[in-house]
TrEMBL record:
This is Succinate-semialdehyde dehydrogenase. One of its GO terms (molecular function) is succinate-semialdehyde dehydrogenase (NAD+) activity. PROSITE patterns: ALDEHYDE_DEHYDR_CYS, ALDEHYDE_DEHYDR_GLU. One of its GO terms (biological process) is gamma-aminobutyric acid catabolic process. It comes from Mixia osmundae (strain CBS 9802 / IAM 14324 / JCM 22182 / KY 12970).
Amino acid sequence: MASSEGSKSAKRLNKPELFHEAAFINGKFITQATSGGTFAVTDPATEEVIGHVPDQGVKETQEAIQHAYKAYQSWSKTTGRQRHDIMKKFYDLLVANSDDIATIITLENGKPLADAKGEATYGASFIEWFAEEAVRDYGDIIPSPVAGQRNLVIKQGVGVCAAICPWNFPLAMITRKMGAALAAGCSVVVKAPAETPFTCLALVHLAQEAGIPDGLINIVTTDKHMKDVGKELCENKTVKKITFTGSTGVGKLLMSQASSTLKKCSFELGGNAPFIVFDDADIDAAVAGAIACKFRSSGQTCVCANRLYVQSGVYAEFASRLAEKVDKFKVGNGFEEGTTHGPLIHARAMEKVEKHVEDAKKRGGQVIVGGKRIKGNFFEPTVITDVPNDIMIAQDETFGPVAALFKFETEEDVLKLANDTDVGLSGYFYSKDVGRIFRVAEALEVGMVGVNTGMLSQSCIPFGGIKESGFGREGSKYGLAEYTTVKLITLAI
Ligand code: SIN
């Protein structure tokens, strides 16, 4: 039974039946949790309730795992071509319903509708990419030193996979995990983000329409019992892999829980990305890159620039050109025409951003644009200059629309600063010097480097980090490998 808020949300869609106030287990949308409880999901722009989903716990998680195991038994025996065909249908449905998917993303995440449409395309691309990979996951034949023997290496899906997903890309962070799992012959139990469960539920509605068998994808919705559900997913023996995108702190906890059953893990954790502008850079391109990279999703991505290092010769020019552009942003409700930047996800996110800005100001930083809360979850896009290297922003990702510009003198100095952090997800720099391009790209301690671009994200690249940004890759053939095991068959003839 839909709530009045849920019915109102559903009416915004071309296909209202895509809006489910439910969890999804074994091919059924379930509106009740064992506890009987539900929790409300709010629109971060208006702070109004948009619907409710069941607050599920360990019991439902165990059921989901059992159904996923059963579904895996048959799915793992399908051919890559069969998996491709169903996944391709799934992809086509995602494309056909992308306007509705984008509407749900804006409703529950707050990002502007144009960005949400971009995410609908980006998210669907993982299903397409992995559908195409499903038929190309080749093995090997290794020449044997033993006469008459042949060594064959085959790939097999790892089994039931648990995916713990974040709210910042309500579609894409799920499809990049789910796409790889399905292509490899695995089944999935997703713990939906409590802030943004509805995109995920529309996704499985379309999966079912495409012919994905019951039990192959399961969505557990939870809020109060989130920690217990996470622990069950990590410790349950039937689950063979855990994939998580989120903070480094939670990643460490999940890894320690998953060690009890030695699960295969891939973790995409926090970043603190350096964005370096050298004196020889194309300044127009660097400003455009900084805007794309720092202010995408109002600064709420793990690969957003967090520390902008600008060489002294171009510092003043870069700062004023960036400030001029940022000042023109239109912050507002993502559904309003012309909105370029939406709200932050919740009050906790706002508090962190405010704390970082206050700290930068206290330490001598000059706010040249923005600098304060507008109202509710909206924060002014901000540029701060003249900040020292040890402010809070330099140590901890802000996850908000604040560009702090640090001045540096030499390549050697900036590399030391850029690498002086425990995490290493992405890094960016702008330069026209070919020698420097290779030197700096190789020296940055990160998993991904953007050179003369502020955008890396595509389904065909290996996305992931090093150091305390985690391990494992998502997207690309490397992403598929995270969901398979390699089996040797030695054959004596
Ligand atoms: C993330 O924020 O974790 C992912 C962003 C992306 O895929 O671009």
